[in-house]
């Protein structure tokens, strides 16, 4: 790969990252400069910088680190949650990570150790979504707690903090974040009705969904 091609790939990845970060703000998943987004670009990880509103980011603001956390591109400081992002990349095949402070998901993180099975879309995240134990933001402790909650999952909640999801692409990671926030909102809405307890799916019912999702979106035999 020539240097020109490499720079073009980084430029396109940064453009997509900024678009995703702005989407989290536009759709109410973050407020101000909270939350952060990252994406793989070859052997590098592009990340949103710390403390800069997403609508002010330009191509010249691109920030990248290697998997050891060494900054190799940009003058702005990487997000304070860099340890969290790097733990995901070091331990999974993630192509992108989205971290938000989504209101309903954060509220649920203060109430239960696991998101109740209110909807079958939990299967799209690998199963019941766990809540990682609280730790100070930006710390290795928080990153380690998150990694335990992500075992065999593609998303989790951070207690009294927010959400983390990852995927093969920015679009997939973002979609998982949006689905997680929607499920949390659904459970809170149903559980708020006095005198009623929402029905929940069983683990066996969820496994049926997981099996069915394995063929979702694939061409039919013979096509």
Strand content: 5-15%
Per the principal axes of the C-alpha atoms, what is the gross shape? globular
Separation of termini? Answer: 35 Å
Structural class: alpha+beta
Mean pLDDT: 94
SSE run = HEEEEHEHEHEEHH
Task: Assign a percent range to the helix content.
Answer: 25-40%
Number of helices: 6
Main sheet record: 8 strands, mixed
Radius of gyration: 18 Å
Q: Enumerate the strands of the largest sheet in spatial order, edge to edge or round the barrel.
A: 4-3-2-1-5-8-7-6
Would you report the number of β strands?
A: 8
- What are the segments in which pLDDT stays under 50 over at least 5 consecutive residues? none
Please give a structural write-up.
The protein has helices at 3-26, 82-91, 103-109, 140-149, 170-191, 203-213; strands at residues 36-41, 44-47, 64-65, 71-73, 96-100, 131-132, 155-158, 162-167. The chain has 223 residues and is of the alpha+beta class. The chain has an eight-stranded mixed sheet with strand order 4-3-2-1-5-8-7-6, sandwiched between helices. Helix 2 (82-91) packs across helix 4 and helix 3 (103-109) crosses helix 5. The two termini are 35 Å apart. The model has no long low-confidence stretch (mean pLDDT 94).
Name some characteristics of this structure.
223 residues, alpha+beta, eight-stranded mixed beta sheet, 6 helices, 38% helix
């Amino acid at each position: 790969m020539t240097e020109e091609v490499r720079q073009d790939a980084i430029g396109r990845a940064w453009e997509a990252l900024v678009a995703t970060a702005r989407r989290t703000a536009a759709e109410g998943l973050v407020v101000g400069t909270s939350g952060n987004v990252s994406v793989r670009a070859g052997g590098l990880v592009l990340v949103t910088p710390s403390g800069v509103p997403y609508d002010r980011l330009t191509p010249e603001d691109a920030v990248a680190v290697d998997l050891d956390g060494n900054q190799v591109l940009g003058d702005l400081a990487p997000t304070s949650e860099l340890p969290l992002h790097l733990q995901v990349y070091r331990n999974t095949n993630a192509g992108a990570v989205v971290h938000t402070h989504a209101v309903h998901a954060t509220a649920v993180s203060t109430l239960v150790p696991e998101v109740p099975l209110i909807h079958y879309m939990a299967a799209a995240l690998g199963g019941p979504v766990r809540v990682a134990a609280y730790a100070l933001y930006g710390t290795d402790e928080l990153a380690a707690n998150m990694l335990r909650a992500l075992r065999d999952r593609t998303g989790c909640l951070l207690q009294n903090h927010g959400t983390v999801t990852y995927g093969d692409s920015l679009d997939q990671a973002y979609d998982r974040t949006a689905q997680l926030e929607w499920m949390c909102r659904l459970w809170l809405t149903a559980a708020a009705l006095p005198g009623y307890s929402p029905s929940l799916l069983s683990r066996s019912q969820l496994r049926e969904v997981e099996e069915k999702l394995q063929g979702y979106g694939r061409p039919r035999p013979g096509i």
